[in-house]
């Protein structure tokens, strides 16, 4: 991405792009648009828009979380600084809105603007509840619907919208993206607990060390004894952790089958995504979206 006025922008964005990634969100936009025979290039602009929004949130997330590694590489805030990460993220948000304007649809602008606001709300909600061991699954789902699923659902919905799909079909695409996004985040939580550093590029147990209450922890805490709750209070709420605490946390999750139950939740959301697809006309793109749902469930990074 060129920016002759601020060379730091292409430096940071090139670092992020070269790190790879699944590009799932723009793929959802393109698949939904092609499902309904989209012509022209507006769907390409929207796919880029969705990826810009996603990349901007990654830059901001790494600053908020004080992360040092993403996709196995140093984060932008580590290589440059927090100010650069925040400002380049702001730039990407601005570019995304420029592309939306080029598409020229107020409905699409409304969908993506609402998604952007919802993402921010989800991130702020996570900040306020993630270190409270009384946080329940309902609150967790509110966070996930905001910070992750909102962009998945918007990505699929605008793909149908730009192709002229009916309101009913756009609603089904939204439902699919929402359920898929929730499943994606739940699997992300699982990979933090049982993933492979060489594959994920993330240290196992980072969420615990960063005191983020994800679904596996919540399921373990819900069943914990009084003494076990004291452990969670010390490590999550107070942030007083030692080198043995991660092993203890993992042991408690296994004791209460929290990891198995979390995977079952992800499977349920994938099935819900597929039920939404059943409302849509048969096509090659429908098969692709169904396969994407399966991929989300079985991915290893």
Which keywords apply here?
single chain, 301 residues, Farnesyl Diphosphate Synthase, two-stranded antiparallel ribbon, 1% strand
Biggest β-sheet description: 2 strands, antiparallel
- Tally of DSSP β-strands: 2
Helical residue percent?
A: over 70%
- Portion of residues in beta strands equals under 5%
Shape designation: globular
User: For the terminal residues, how far apart are their CA atoms?
Assistant: 26 Å
Q: What's the rounded overall pLDDT mean? A: 90
Per CATH, the superfamily is Farnesyl Diphosphate Synthase
Q: Give me the side-by-side strand order of the main sheet.
A: 1-2
Secondary-structure element order, N to C: HHHEEHHHHHHHHHHHH
CATH-defined fold name: Farnesyl Diphosphate Synthase
The level-1 CATH class = Mainly Alpha
* Weakly predicted, low-confidence segments: none
Estimated structural class: mainly alpha
Q: Helix count?
A: 15
Describe the structure.
It is a single chain. The chain has 15 helices and two strands. It has 301 residues and is mainly α. It has a single domain, classed as Farnesyl Diphosphate Synthase (Orthogonal Bundle), CATH 1.10.600.10. Strands 1-2 form a two-stranded antiparallel sheet. α2 packs antiparallel against α3. The longest helix is centred in the middle third of the chain and has 28 residues. The model has no long low-confidence stretch (mean pLDDT 90).
């Amino acid at each position: 991405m060129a920016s002759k006025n601020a060379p730091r922008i292409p430096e940071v964005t090139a670092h992020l792009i070269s790190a790879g990634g699944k590009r799932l969100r723009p793929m959802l936009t393109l698949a939904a648009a092609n499902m309904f025979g989209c012509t022209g290039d507006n769907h390409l602009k929207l796919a880029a828009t969705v990826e810009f929004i996603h990349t901007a949130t990654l830059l901001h997330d790494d600053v908020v979380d004080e992360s040092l590694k993403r996709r196995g590489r140093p984060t932008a805030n580590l290589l440059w600084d927090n100010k650069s990460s925040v400002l380049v993220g702001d730039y990407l948000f601005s570019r995304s809105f420029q592309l939306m304007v080029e598409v020229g649809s107020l409905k699409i602008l409304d969908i993506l603007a609402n998604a952007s606001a919802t993402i921010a709300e989800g991130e702020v909600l996570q900040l306020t509840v993630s270190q409270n061991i009384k946080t329940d699954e309902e609150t967790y789902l509110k966070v996930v619907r905001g910070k992750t699923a909102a962009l998945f659902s918007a990505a699929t919905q605008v793909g149908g919208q730009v192709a002229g799909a009916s309101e009913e079909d756009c609603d089904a695409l939204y439902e699919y993206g929402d359920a898929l996004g929730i499943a994606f985040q739940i699997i992300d939580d699982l990979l933090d607990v049982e993933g492979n550093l060489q594959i994920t590029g993330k240290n196992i147990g980072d969420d615990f060390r960063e005191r983020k209450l994800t679904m596996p922890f919540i399921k373990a805490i819900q069943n914990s004894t009084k003494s076990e709750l004291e452990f969670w209070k010390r490590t999550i709420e107070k942030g007083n952790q030692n080198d043995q605490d991660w092993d203890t946390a993992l042991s408690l999750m296994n004791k209460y089958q929290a990891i198995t139950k979390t995977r079952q939740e992800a499977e349920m959301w994938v099935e819900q995504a597929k039920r939404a697809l059943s409302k849509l006309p048969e096509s090659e793109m429908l098969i692709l979206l169904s396969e994407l749902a399966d991929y989300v469930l079985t991915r290893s990074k």
